[in-house]
Write a structure and sequence with these properties.
Elements (H helix, E strand, L loop, with lengths): L7 H4 L2 H54 L1 H4 L2 H14 L1 E7 L4 E4 L12 H7 L4 E5 L4 E10 L2 E11 L1 H52 L12 H51 L5 H33 L6 E5 H18 L3 E6 L4 E5 H17 L6 E8 L3 E8 L6 H4 L11 H7 L5 H11 L3 E7 L3 E9 L5
Parallel strand pairs: 7-9
Antiparallel strand pairs: 1-2, 1-5, 3-4, 4-5, 6-8, 9-10, 10-12, 11-12
Helix pairs in contact: 2-4, 2-6, 7-8, 8-13, 9-10, 10-13
The structure holds adenosine-5'-diphosphate.
């Protein structure tokens, strides 16, 4: 596996993102849990403490009424209040209806007048409570009522330091727990992200190996559905590259072979002429004719190559004119008939109507020539070729049918590929570059036409062509 340089490489890696996801997915719930548990604890404790103080203050209020405290300030009442104050460890203040403090368990504010919203509310007969978390105390105000009439207020304030201490303790524990969870989550995130990404490391190593030896290696990382899919697609691409490379190598050796053969023949013919003294005129002529034929063959191969390169380079550049297609076909067949004659192949041409179309004459001639030439080349002695031309209001149609050797089923889908030659041994014998049909397909597509083939091995082939009568750029 390629190791990341720590830095931007690592920060941009999937592993880092998986790490972050696992880390936050593990940590955020624990943070939420701690803060909600702490909040809940505080609310519940304050509320039960408030209820308790309120209940006891109400008991005290009843006692004070029973003792007639606000009328005679009996000592019994003082004892009760002080008992309660010491029990609360807090402060108890009694206020009469004139808002004057008649008793303060701290003995600080007696005789003073109270101006407080809460006391006003309480004087109206309501229980009031307040929790001041910042200063750490709970306040409770309870009205003292006699015969449904408020005769005073008991205000109790109690320190909430107990609650804060409990909270601090819980917080400390929570922090230790959170820290432990964080360490655990970091370990899980590092380990998990590493494990999840391991197949990708294996994949990258395999690809490195394949780069040096793509003939024998295959990508096979089957840990996940995704890696399976990638492996499948990669291997498909690899096999396509292999095929292309094979075709290229085959093409190079074919072309060199094809180019060399006429040269060798010419060399042999020329040497034998040079080696002989007083060569008779007839022999001289015969050899020169052979040399001229070989030059023609050489020319044909080079022209094929150039046509294809030109078609490639001038994509979309067509020299469109109105062309009499019947004439063009007749001319093509006239040129090819002598070749057919060598194998005693009969060419039948059937034209159903005059056809005139907007086409590039040179390129379409190339199409016709290649198709008919193939029908002759891949034919048998005394065979036949049937060419037909027809048209409707939109397209013209050409079929080139032969009763020749046919194309093996597995080769049919490849014959339009460059450099592809079906039945290699046979094809080499016949001669060719594997470029003819690639040229045909390119030219037909440039005319916005279509071509298809039907073939049965041993019986023959039919190439059908459809080209629009008017050229739409
Ligand atoms: P080539 O220069 O080999 O003829 P083409 O591109 O013209 O190249 O044809 C590709 C291959 O398709 C040929 O090698 C041949 O195997 C096959 N082929 C083409 N036309 C025919 C046909 N009419 N009958 C049988 N095989 C054909």
């Amino acid at each position: 596996m390629k190791h990341f340089k720590l830095g931007f490489d690592f920060l941009g890696s999937i592993r880092f993102y998986i790490f972050l996801m696992v880390f936050f997915a593990g940590l955020i719930p624990s943070l939420f849990l701690t803060s909600s548990v702490l909040g809940g604890y505080e609310r519940r404790t304050v509320s039960s403490e408030t209820i308790r103080i309120t209940a006891q203050s109400k008991l005290l209020a009843n006692r004070l009424v029973a003792d007639g405290f606000f009328e005679n300030n009996s000592d019994v009442s003082y004892d009760q209040i002080e008992l309660l104050a010491s029990y609360y460890e807090g402060r108890i203040i009694l206020i009469d209806t004139d808002y004057e403090i008649v008793y303060d368990s701290y003995g600080i504010d007696e005789g003073k007048t109270v101006v407080s919203e809460k006391v006003f509310e309480c004087m109206r007969g309501l229980d009031v409570s307040n929790y001041d978390s910042a200063n750490g105390y709970i306040e409770v105000c309870v009205p003292v009522t006699e015969n449904d009439e408020v005769i005073g207020v008991i205000a109790v304030s109690k320190s909430s330091s107990g609650i804060s201490a409990d909270m601090d303790y819980i917080k400390q524990n929570a922090f230790v727990m959170q820290f432990s969870i964080m360490i655990l989550v970091i370990f899980i995130a590092i380990y998990g992200s590493g494990k999840l990404m391991k197949p990708f490391g294996v994949m990258s190593e395999s690809i490195d190996r394949i780069q040096t030896d793509y003939e024998n290696e295959q990508l096979s990382v089957l840990n996940y559905t995704e890696t399976k899919e990638i492996s499948k697609a990669f291997n498909a691409m690899l096999s396509r590259i292999k095929t292309l490379d094979d075709s290229r190598q085959e093409f190079v050796s074919n072309v060199s072979h094809e180019l060399k053969t006429p040269l060798t023949s010419m060399k042999v013919l020329a040497d034998s002429l040079l080696d002989q003294e007083d060569v008779p005129n007839e022999l001289y002529k015969e050899f020169m004719t052979d040399i001229a034929e070989e030059i023609d063959r050489e020319n044909k191969i080079i022209n094929d190559l150039l046509s294809l390169v030109k078609l490639d380079k001038s994509q979309g550049v067509l020299n469109i004119t109105q062309v009499n297609v019947n004439e063009l076909m007749e001319l093509t067949l006239k040129r090819l008939r002598p070749i057919a004659g060598k194998k005693n192949i009969e060419i039948v041409y059937e034209t159903l109507r005059p056809v005139s179309a907007e086409i590039d004459e040179v390129k379409m001639a190339l199409v016709f020539t290649n198709l008919v030439e193939n029908a002759i080349k891949y034919n048998v002695e005394d065979g036949w070729v049937h060419v037909s031309l027809n048209a409707d209001h939109q397209f013209f149609y050409v079929t080139v049918e032969d009763g020749g050797i046919g194309i093996p089923e597995e080769s049919v889908e490849h014959i339009f590929e460059r450099f592809y030659r079906a039945d290699k041994s046979h094809s080499r014998e016949i001669g060719g570059t594997g470029l003819g049909l690639a040229i045909v397909r390119n030219a037909v597509l440039m005319h916005r036409g279509a071509i298809q083939v039907n073939s049965t091995e041993g019986k023959g082939s039919t190439f059908s062509l459809r080209v629009p009568l008017t050229y739409a750029s």
